[in-house]
Amino acid sequence: MNYVSKGLLTKEEGRLYSRLLQNRITGDYNDFFDFESEDVLPLIKPVKNLVARLDDLIKLD
User: How confident is the model at residue 61 (pLDDT cuts 50, 70, 90)?
Assistant: First the structure.
């Protein structure tokens, strides 16, 4: 939220981060939910881009 409001990440990147966090919580605590490849495969490229952006932000600090 702070990175988006300060303009360091786009709203889309913020939504992706929120989605990933929700997926992690679901995967950790919901014993009856399985992620399928069609859920995960479309996220690979956007997540790689987000990690690169976060890496750039970390280097700035």
Answer: low
